[in-house]
Amino acid sequence: MLETSARLLKLLSLLQQPKEWSGAALADELGVGVRTVRRDVDKLRNLGYPVDAVPGVAGYRLGSGAALPPLLLDDEEAVAVAIGLRAAASGTVAGTEESSVRALTKLEQVLPSRLRHRVALLQQVAVTPAGGPSVQPDVLLAVAAACRDHQRLRFDYSNHDGTATTRTTEPHRLVHTGRRWYLVAWDLDRTDWRTFRLDRLEPRIPTGPRFTPRDEVPDIATTNRGVAYGGYRYQARILVHAPAEQVADRFGPSVATVTPVEGAEAGATLVETGANTLDEIAFYLGRLEYPFEILSPPELIERVRELATRLAASLPPS
Known about the structure:
Elements: H1 4-15, E1 21-22, H2 23-30, H3 34-46, E2 51-54, E3 59-62, H4 75-88, H5 97-110, H6 113-125, H7 137-149, E4 153-158, E5 164-176, E6 181-187, E7 192-197, E8 201-204, H8 220-228, E9 234-241, H9 244-248, E10 256-260, E11 268-275, H10 278-286, E12 292-296, H11 298-313
Antiparallel strand pairs: 1-3, 2-3, 4-5, 4-8, 5-6, 6-7, 9-11, 9-12, 10-11
Helix pairs in contact: 1-3, 2-3, 4-5, 4-6, 10-11
């Protein structure tokens, strides 16, 4: 049988799992009787842990209290939290940098050396994306709550050309690409799925009535297309003469959508991407190792011609 302190820690770890435990199941896990489980639950409550009784099944679950009690994290959870805090400290959500650094300092202070080494190793080999526009925490929380509670969300939105609109949506989910936050939602006025950048969005509170989530939820390809292609000043379509699986290795899902072209020559791939400058798209195309044709927009074709002329003029005579 475990000592009382060790048993309490194991009981707390079990209760932190997102499930309801019967007294008998907890007794089996701990190797004690049901009466001992009841006494240990009372001890946790005295320590400030809100352990709720589940009616009807003589069970328990960990509830929410007035204050945040200490949490028990396993190795994988501790590493995940540390990495998440480091990402938050980079400023993707406005106003959370300082609090993220404080929380990360507290966590790393108590991490075992084996976990601290894993966190440091991941940080060394990972490439941090270029910082994108920050999002106000109250905006992020308001949109997340509307997604969770299936409540209509009206908001003022600034399009990529600076024009302001008011949108009424059924919010579905949030997407984070490492640079920006996006909302995927059903636009009631346009009767179609749309992707919105959160840094351009200002929710109108309170939110609207509840709605029933739609069955035709967009798949990951649809979401990625909105993130990679929509919401930018320029949208480009490029025909790449290479198989789609090879082209996909050159573009991340948040950078471009890659679609095999049927009925064309073997190995042709359509790439759709977007950016706020033509030079950014040209940079990505310049890194391709495969022949390609720019289908649109005309401005990109002209800009690539100008860049090619300038680069050719900079070369010494052969």
